[in-house]
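User: Hello, can you help with two protein structures?

Assistant: Certainly.
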Amino acid sequence: MESNENNNARGALIVLEGLDRSGKTSQCRRLHSRLVEQGIPIELWRFPDRKTCVGQMISSYLANKSQLDDQTVHLLLVLTVGRKGFPYFMSLMESKLKSGTTLIVDRYSYSGVAFSSAKGLDIEWCKAPERGLLAPDLVVYLDISPEKAAERGGYGGERYEQLEFQREVSQQYQILRDGTWKIIDVCLPVEDIEKQLRELVLDCITTCQRGKGDIGSANSLFSARNRHWANLQFIEKK
């Protein structure tokens, strides 16, 4: 990999999305381990962060141990972006990227919007609390049909792991996806999935190390040109 000599060089913000049991967490962990072995500065983040107080509330809800209304659940998901508050979280993420550290993120705002709107909440209402989040450099969608996902081990252990609901979530992801997302068929052999993912990620990291654009700038994924998510963008401070 290239050295961080370019003043505009930075880490990449890379997000993995997909239905429950699509393999996001496993792929994130394997990818993180492989890139660490290659000496790439990298951190693995996961949302919701179930180690926080808010994350534990969500975890209890997902495990069917507590009841919450849909609006409350969505707003709690938004809060998990930072236990010390939204400005702190944004500053931390930005500083990590500027220092050259790549962030691999297991779910991002898309998940909260897809799952909440699948319950019937207005999709624009679901997007509104996400204003100001950094736009990813790469979104990889691990593609699997709800029916195939339901055949995987452990399915049904959490509240949302129901076939009909996952079909609704899949439809909402179709609305959120645009031409910038990279799609990987996770019904392929594991070796092929890992190879495709690694190639996409390494290419993105190299591009960012060469000084590609500003972090979450207005011309990135969630710009006004994005008809699905025009209200989610981050304009770097001057």
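That covers the first. Now for the second protein you mentioned:
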Amino acid sequence: MLSFALPIEPFTVERIIQLILLGLCFSVSWTDFKERRIPNLALLIGFMLMLALRLLCGGEWSWLSAIPFVAVVLVFFGGIALVWPASIGMGDVKLLACAAYALGVGPFFLVLTIASMTALLGASLLLLFDQASRTHSLPYAPFLSVGLLSWFVSAFWE
């Protein structure tokens, strides 16, 4: 069988993909924090880089294997964004889909949990010190970046 994969080990390719996601998260965190928006172009470029790496350097079907999980993430969080728009923005939904593609099921839920707990702590502190009201919204990308960085550092030291 013909294989067009470049001679890079999958472990290395996965780490590069995770670093691309980390860079993407930190770059969109700034605009999410300042402008409360996540640029579609940044998400598209990040996703296309991850897809290209998996397509060129991964296993034969590695680029396609994460798509069902990405679809579940898009439908679940996209549904929440459509039903309750104040809870999560569509930029956050697309960023979560990129994270699902890069990480896979287990690490994605761990990063999501760390990010959500960090957001809960941040919101609680803002409320405690009267810096925000209950109707105040928080950008989620910075918290996702913290969760991803925490997971990445812990996975690096395993």
